[in-house]
Amino acid sequence: MLKDPKIRRIALIGGVVLVVLVVVSAVLFQDALFRMSITPPGRFAQEPAPPRADYARAESWALRPAQPPPGGWETPWGIDIFFIHPTSAYSNAGWNTPVDNAEALERLKERILPNHAGPFLQAGPVYAPLYRQASLHSEIDVGGEGDGAFDLAYDDVLRAFDHYMAVDNRFRGVVIAGVGQGGLHAQRLLADRFQAEPLQSRLAAAYIIDAALPADFAGKRVNQPLCAQADQIHCIVAWKTILAGDDATRFRDKSPVWTADWKITASKGKPLVCVNPLRWTIDDELSARVDHRGAVRAKGAADLEPAIIEKAVTARCNHGVLEVERPSAPELQVDNGSGAQYKTPELNLFYADIVPNLTGRMTAATAWLDNVENARKPAEPLPPAVNFEDAPIYRPDGQPEPVH
Fold first, then answer.
1. Does residue 382 lie within any of the structural domains?
2. Which of 73, 233, 263, 346 is 20 to 30 A removed from 180 (C-alpha atoms)?
3. How far apart (Å, rounded) are the C-alpha atoms in residues 132 and 317?
4. What is the mean pLDDT of each run of 10 residues along the chain (404 residues)?
């Protein structure tokens, strides 16, 4: 037993330092092990691509209305939501995940969509395609071979959107929404399909959630500006959430972003922009808990009205990312398991904040479209042509004229 107080103090300090080193090493080692576990076994160029989805088939969609909503020729002018889901596949099976991967589908439909597509389902018809999502490895280690995985995933998103426009849209207005990886694809879709009429005017708003949005995107690389107030339309809402105490630099510098030539790179050194979903403004003012309408943790696909936890967090935009108070409610505790910081949270901190904001923008967009000075209503499509069988032509003498 150590009797000298000085030696005991040195031993105690040494023990504390050792414990800290062990904990830090364990965290770093756990992170390294997780990243190794999701690394695809081969090179992207040598890996056969999973089969393409056929968007004419209902099973290629995670969500779509059971019946087509009224066409744009009706009054009021209707609005659809095209929703691009976040990453739901966490394995190392390949650079892109097949749309029928059972584990990814179960996680998507039972835990991710109820929380993240749920607010949009409350507002209107939702079309959410399945797509060959880029691997989680591609999101973490951006650049290099991951570019090909993101391009392949986006090719599906674009094909799904074009099918939706050709078959399902029926001249209606559109909200584009994307979460996580889906938010990245939503940015590119905005640039590819919404910079000319008629879609430029028919875009009610775009919601880019938990995906970094470069400052040179809204209003610069695309015509749509960042939404600066709650009722603005034809604009982009965007935020990427971090919890207070997390390393904001890591998120700002390592989040994947599309560059001007549509290559995926890390956001290091690139200014980002943020809309505060408690205030719906782009300033850096701190929003109080009283401004928070509510978070949810939906319990499954059948949980259509999840319990809302109000006044759970504060939030502010800080250097382009949304810094959120770490919630104390047990239901809002994020999983701290292996790789948790890279995975899509199975809860939504701003569920009840999104719903009224979304419905308000959709109402404003409908009113704008219904004004004949802004947009001319499309004509109702003609009914399908009717084919008649050949019939004989009768002459005055009552005898039929042969048909040649």
1. no
2. 233
3. 32
4. 62 56 52 81 89 97 96 94 97 91 97 98 97 93 86 98 97 98 98 97 98 96 97 97 83 88 91 97 95 97 95 95 94 81 93 98 97 89 73 62 57
Q: Does some domain include residue 95?
A: yes
Tokens describing residue 298? 């939906």
Cis ω before 392 (30° cut-off from 0)? no
The 3-state DSSP composition of the chain as helix, strand, coil percent (nearest 5) reads 35, 15, 50
183: part of which helix (H) or strand (E)? Answer: helix 181-193
Evaluated on CA atoms 252, 107, 296, 282, the torsion sign reads: positive
Q: Could you write out the DSSP letters of every residue in 113-151?
A: HHHHTHHHHTTS-EEEE---PBPHHHHHS-STTHHHHHH
Residue 313 within any structural domain of the chain: yes
In angstroms, the CA 356 to CA 291 distance is 13
Long-range contacts of 266-270 (CB under 8 A, 24+ apart): 266/142, 266/143, 267/212, 267/214, 270/214, 270/215, 270/216
Distance from C-alpha of 84 to C-alpha of 87, rounded to nearest angstrom: 10
Q: Which domain holds residue 60?
A: 49-370
Structure tokens, 231: 């009722």
**Pick from 78, 292, 258: which is nearest to 184 by CA?**
258
Please say whether the beta carbons of 203 and 174 come within 8 A.
Answer: yes
d(CA 152, CA 133): 8
Between CA 234 and CA 10 the distance in angstroms is 64
Cβ–Cβ under 8 Å, residues 82 and 71? no
SS3 for 179?
A: strand
Instruction: Provide the number of structural domains found in the chain.
Output: 1
Q: What is the pLDDT of residue 402?
A: 60
Nearest to 78 by CA among 25, 28, 123: 123
Which among 217, 214, 220, 207 has a CA at the least distance from the CA of 361? 207
Quote the CA–CA distance of 53 and 158 in Å, as a whole number. 12
395: left (phi over 0), alpha (psi -120 to 50) or beta: beta
Question: Does 361 map to a domain?
Answer: yes
